[in-house]
Amino acid sequence: MTLNQTYSKQLKGLLYKSLICLLGIPSTLSGQKNITEAEALQIVRERHPAVLSSNAAIRSAQVMRTGAARNWEPAEIYHNIAADPDLGMFGTSTFGVTQVFPSARQTRAHRSLYEQQAKLHEAERSLTQHQLSREVRDIFQHLSYLDEKRNRLGALDSLYQQTARIADSRFRNGEAASDERLSALDQAARIRLELETIGHETAFDREVLAQFLGENEPLVPVIAPFTRNTFSMADTARIRDGAYAKVDAGKAAVSDAMTGVEKSRRAPQMTAGLNVQYLGNGALYPGYSVGLRLPLAQQNLRARASAASATAEASRAQLEATIRSQQMELAHLLHEVEKYEILLEYYEKEGKILATELRRSAFQRYAAGESDFLEWVQSAEKALRIEMEYLDNLHMLNRTILEIEMLF
After folding, report:
1. Contacts within 8 Å (CB) and 24+ apart, 367-371
2. Which of 3.40.50.12780, 1.10.8.60, 1.20.1600.10, 2.60.40.10 would CATH assign to domain 39-406?
3. HEC letters along the chain
4. What is the spatial distance between Cα 387 and Cα 344, in angstroms, rounded to a whole number?
5. pLDDT grade, residue 190 (50/70/90)?
């Protein structure tokens, strides 16, 4: 390529980029969108349908608390006709309206119920966001894991390509048999196949992430380095205040409030009304009425309140059962963390050095003709196995820590 051709190509590239900037066209023709883990978490926490459903339920309970806690029954409009000795069979007609006024006790009970329902829906929303965040973080962690595997296999692929070239050169010079050359090419092809498999897994994770976030365009997650996650042991004491426990605590509070509603049914209610009597001779007599509604079926009301109390007791027991179950789960997960940390410690102290030295020294001996191809492959495979086991253990450790964080 001449100097003029090079300059012309650079100038065309500059003009193309300038046109893209002026028109506001995305720089990637495929329309892909870069997204960080923080941005993905914000999307699912705010715009996921499950969160929107919880928001609507919270608004419903809040509206009921402010506008429907005072339970007004429909007014009764009536017309009575009575006989009169002087005016005949239909001598007296009475028109009136009567209204029952909700008791203050019932109003307080209903307001408390709707308030507890709103808090329960808030706890359910928090749990939903907790679960959705876990899914997003799990996808990003898996992508980081795949990216690190790709890097390790990419370095090994470069080494196997060099091996294949050495084997091919020796074969051409009559220094090695054909099977050594073919074996070297096969090893290089196998690594390429593993890299292709990782590419398919990465593409699948990206598609799942896009569907999970409700995005119609392809997403390119911004992958963070694959490192070890940590957590604070002090946080493990917060299981009783965790997302799962808060939901069960909210259900217990709603059951207690429902018990209060059932007990408030026994409260008396005032009634008041206006009426007018129309006599057959054309005379009109206005009047009013005041009364008190007393629940006489006390046995039925006491049974309803007793049933509500039993439901509340069951809810409180379920809360304690949830806390105990999570405490047992936490103990199991902490044991898993300890196991993976022991395995990782081996790699960091011994395995990493061993894998590096195995691969380096074995390749140098093979390149110098001091060892055969089989010895080199065995050493390379052992080094790769040590590194892949480390990556798998680190991935499982991070997933276990994520499960621990879900408990509180």
Report:
1. 367/162, 367/166, 369/175
2. 1.20.1600.10
3. CCHHHHHHHHHHHHHHHHHHHHHCCCCCCCCCEEECHHHHHHHHHHHCHHHHHHHHHHHHHHHHHHHCCCCCCCCEEEEEEEEECCCEEEEEEEEEEEEEECCHHHHHHHHHHHHHHHHHHHHHHHHHHHHHHHHHHHHHHHHHHHHHHHHHHHHHHHHHHHHHHHHHHHHHCCCCCHHHHHHHHHHHHHHHHHHHHHHHHHHHHHHHHHHHHCCCCCEEECCCCCCCCCCCHHHHHHHHHCHHHHHHHHHHHHHHHHHHHHHHCCCCEEEEEEEEEEECCCCEEEEEEEEEECCCCHHHHHHHHHHHHHHHHHHHHHHHHHHHHHHHHHHHHHHHHHHHHHHHHHHHHHHHHHHHHHHHHHHHHHHCCCCCHHHHHHHHHHHHHHHHHHHHHHHHHHHHHHHHHHCC
4. 11
5. confident
Interatomic CA distance for residues 32 and 209, integer angstroms: 13
84 forms beta bridges with: 88
Torsion angle of alpha carbons 103, 104, 107, 109, nearest 10°? -110
Please state, for a pLDDT cut of 70, what percent of the chain lies above it: 91
Are 121 and 54 in contact by the 8 Å Cβ rule? The answer is yes
Closest-CA residue to 231 (of 397, 41, 40, 346) = 397
The torsion defined by the Cα of 401, 404, 406 and 408, in degrees rounded to 10, comes to -130
Lowest mean pLDDT among 51-65, 244-258, 368-382: 368-382
| pTM of the predicted structure, to 2 decimals | 0.78
Query: Across all residues in the chain, what is the average pLDDT?
Result: 84
Confidence of residue 315 (pLDDT cuts 50, 70, 90): very high
Query: pLDDT at residue 16 above 50?
Result: no
Mean pLDDT value of segment 359-387: 84
